[in-house]
Amino acid sequence: MKSHYRAVVIGGGVVGTSVLYHLAKFGWTDVCLIERSVLTAGSSWHAAGGFHALNADPNIASLQAYTIDLLSEIEQESGQSVGMHMTGGMTLAGTPDRWEWLQSAYRTFQSIGIDDCRLITPQEAGELCPIMSTEGIIGGMWADREGYVDTTGTVHAYAGAAKKRGAEVIENNRVLELHQVDDGWQIVTEKGTIHAEHVVNAAGLWAKQVGRMAGVELPVSPLNHHYLISDTIPELEKLDFEVPMTVDLEGFTYMRQDQKGILLGIYEIDHEHWMMDGAPWEYGFELQQEDPDRIEKELTLGFGRYPALQTTGVKTWVNGAFTFAPDGNPLVGPVRGKPGYWCACGVMAGFLQGGGVGKSLAEWMIHGEPEADVFGMDVARFGDYAQNKRFIKETTGQFYTRRFVMTYPNEQLPAGRPLKKAPAYDGMTAAGCRWGASYGLEIPLYFAPSEDFTETPTLKRSNAFEIVAEECKAVRETVGLLDISAFSRFEVSGAGAEAWLNRIMASKLPKPGRARLAPMLSSEGRLKGDLTVFNWGGGTWWIMGSYYLREWHMRWFQDHMGDGVEVRDVTDAVTGFSLSGPNSRKVLEKLTDGPVADLPFMGCTTLDIGMLRVKVGRLSVAGELGYEIHCSAAEHITLRETLLEAGTDLGIREYGFNALLSLRLEKSFGIWSAEFTQGYTAAQTGMDRWIDWEKDFIGREAALKERDAGGPAQIVVPIEVDAADADASGYEPVWQGGKRVGFVTSGGFGHTTGKSLAMAMVDRAAAAEGTELTVHIVGQERPARVIAASPYDPAGKAMRG
Ligand SMILES: Cc1cc2nc3c(=O)[nH]c(=O)nc-3n(C[C@H](O)[C@H](O)[C@H](O)COP(=O)(O)OP(=O)(O)OC[C@H]3O[C@@H](n4cnc5c(N)ncnc54)[C@H](O)[C@@H]3O)c2cc1C
Fold it and tell me: Which residue's CA is minimally distant from atom 35 of ligand 1?
């Protein structure tokens, strides 16, 4: 062990060894891994070692596909067998809705280039897995590249391949303390103190403690998980092939062959957390006592699905723990305010995801950004609110229990809610508001006409369709009122504010009293924000974005901070409402003698509205004459009441974000996480029209290079779909004459235009207006075509009027 390394990885499980391997592979060889006990001594040794294609987040599914390809590579490089059994795999659907969902998932895989999947009938499923009863199975999805590995062999293969590239592995050496120093971290271990520029928390079951060593409170908890391994099954002995890895979603089980028996793993409905503050230091190769009573229902289903289990004994029970974040995805990346401290934890499927996690983190550490859009596993997708123990317990428990339960796109899950409520929450609830949650905040979805209205979970248009239609109508024809607590607001001040904003934003800055749309780019020219900058005058600026990106944006701002600038996140202190629609100005004029009529489109000013002194910007995501009115949290209730009262005889109606999403589609306005992501460049999304090429800004060189090379190969275009019962939602494949030319970024129904609309990222050759396409929506192929931007009010007269 040396006294100095460029990077130290803490934890010798599948994730830590993968990070080590990728660091060495990408050129950092002055790196070491420190393991408390021996390699695999956490969750990794007792995993079932299975890997399969499905993940709700397509970006994570891509990284899973990368991991699967990597396994044979590390085997070759290290000379250590990973015990690969590429049996192929099946995911089975047992209800009509699930079958529709699986067909959609199959199409999503096509969109992201995973082409080795196909849909199968129950009969085929039975032939592929002869020991399985197909009772109740409606259909399934087959994937060639699914199977299982030997877990210990895999960890040693990662470590062996890393060592061959110059990395060191130090076992039986616990990290005791971490201290942040000027140029990195001091790592106090049982065998001495090391200095490193970078330290990686890959401590798995102990991630919580290794986080706390650095003052980082991670939203992660271990939960217990059972599988059993059966004795030899005579029917299996007779087969000349291995049965495939099989996931029975309605049965809560996964199954793979284990020698001549089977391994049956269970996602437990009655889940059990274990050591929420992290495993004991002395824990290692022990397991928890099995508890078949707790999982009786799932076992009954499993024994029904694989009838041989009814007459075969159980050879081994495993009840071990592994870690979960609130949404079940890993916690990866740098932590704000802790330069050189990196996370690679909360990985609940390390054998499936470890390769992608290692690759992305190593790219991040070495090049400053990962290649893929990894927001779905970025540790910054959670804020301080997610540190709360009860929140972690409820959300991780919910994820675990629902791991195989189908969640509909319009379904709102209850765990960890309500947590953050805008002050007017109660008033809005009394008015019928139905809520969703984002980053811990309750956000209005729509206003139900009666208390007993229940929205039916569905993959298609729901019974809230007409309600949303009415809300859209009010915004287009009279005036709609929307709670905009879910916008983030950063106040930027100080002598260096303007210079800093000029460098960090790719657009021109607004003059005093004006706002401007501002793309923010990474140095690779990819999007880091679709923000709005306000210049309130007197040296005070605001950056406004999405509530759920607060931590992510703040980390970026701090990492790129300038001299003499202060950036304060004022989001929870400042809140507000927006008024949109032809009557919105009239509502404001009733409440102020200020110069509302003089406020130009994209203007901003301070006004007296009723008894409140508020900040007002004239913008509208709905594409109407509109005003965003920002007040202090203490004034939120009064502002709502004031606006509602003034708007009564002008047809005011409260609306929610479901309507806003429809309204903005009719204007072809993109949104973050759909049309805009860190995976796309500004030119791909049309955001380049806001770029000020004359100035210097982060990402300019890369953006110019792309422009000078003739632009991107794919761009976002608006499309119209012939769909009568369901609308696109995202990642549906788009075809031209049977050739896949792109995928949907988002979609919905345009209630004013009466059309099913979507935005899609397509090849330039398929991007011209009028191009005939087809799109798969909920498993069905539907005709579609590229249309001109902004099917509603293309000239923008309403918005600018
Ligand atoms: C029953 C069961 C079945 C599973 N089946 C599958 C499956 O089929 N497929 C799949 O992909 N995943 C499966 N998993 C999940 C998988 O085991 C985990 O995702 C994976 O092991 C996590 O790896 P890790 O490296 O993050 O953590 P761990 O394996 O927990 O490794 C962390 C390491 O860090 C070390 N460490 C901690 N603190 C310190 C310190 N202070 N100093 C030095 N070293 C330290 C520990 O000793 C440990 O070796 C299963 C899990 C269980 C429990």
Answer: 11
